[in-house]
Amino acid sequence: xxxxxxxxxxxxxxxxxxxxxxxxxxxxxxxxxxxxxxxxxxxxxxxxxxxxxxxxxxxxxxxxxxxxxxxxxxxxxxxxxxxxxxxxxxxxxxxxxxxxxxxxxxxxxxxxxxxxxxxxxxxxxxxxxxxxxxxxxxxxxxxxxxxxxxxxxxxxxxxxxxxxxxxxxxxxxxxxxxxxxxxxxxxxxxxxxxxxxxxx
Length: 200
Hints:
Elements: E1 6-12, E2 17-24, E3 27-31, H1 37-47, E4 50-55, H2 67-74, E5 77-81, E6 94-96, E7 101-104, E8 107-114, E9 121-128, E10 131-137, E11 140-141, E12 144-145, H3 151-166, E13 174-177, E14 183-184, H4 185-188, H5 192-198
Parallel strand pairs: 3-4, 4-5, 5-6, 10-13
Antiparallel strand pairs: 1-2, 2-3, 7-8, 8-9, 9-10, 11-12, 13-14
């Protein structure tokens, strides 16, 4: 067994929700139990791990439909950003703030809070095979930020994403969003001014 991190991933539901599974030794850390608990548990089985921790990135219903069932079946510890906790459908064991880490099989995985798409969604940072991987929920996508409902929310999200991701992590960092395909910070960086001007 090795405590080197590896990544498994499935897409569930008609909304193309991504469920990510970080694996080390025989343990798994699931990012968003979005839907289809049997498929999530099957992914863990195929990876040869038992899910011991679950991170919910944010409160939106399409990201938590399998949460209660996955927690019941696995007995995993549930982590979520504290600003999202009141709206989640399952008990949260550990509430997360900006700068916290999730300990997992010898790794301390940083948590970055991004405000704006929801009151305070979480990004998890993991080093996999020498590259930074950012699991950003719905805060950042190829081509733009996550949806916001007011200019204030947009400005808050833009500033958080720029200051807490683009200004901190290298351009080859892989961005894994809550829906759709991955990208890198370097691919998206040239568009920051465009996003600022268009306000989405």
